[in-house]
Amino acid sequence: MQVAYHLLPAVIEAGTRIFVYSGMNDTILPYEGSLAWVSLIPSSQLSAFRQPPVTIPPPAKPSETTFRGIVHNPGGDVTLYGFPDAGHMAQVDQPTVVWKILENAVKGENWNPLERCW
């Protein structure tokens, strides 16, 4: 198996937005591993990604449509979402939020949880 992160700079420079999400309770592909490989991408686009992440605390009234967790580079060209209450199948543990993130990605938008909710 070979690493593919070195192929991504050309994709990013061409205007493709990349988002990665990971359950922070994932023991198969841990969040820390996702953070490590995304941080290795050699791209000028990642200077904002390398800044400290934003932590979004749980809301006063929890909702299945509310994201809480860690976001690296919210709204940027490369974004990493960390779901604290999710395991390997974050899309099963947090289906509504992951679906909305995917829905926006298909539209060419990178959802920024700091700017809007659903």
TrEMBL record:
GO terms for molecular function: serine-type carboxypeptidase activity. Pfam families: Peptidase_S10 (PF00450). The keyword Cell inner membrane does not apply. GO terms for biological process: proteolysis. Keywords: Carboxypeptidase, Glycoprotein, Hydrolase, Protease. Belongs to the peptidase S10 family. This is Carboxypeptidase. The lineage of its organism: Eukaryota, Fungi, Dikarya, Basidiomycota, Agaricomycotina.
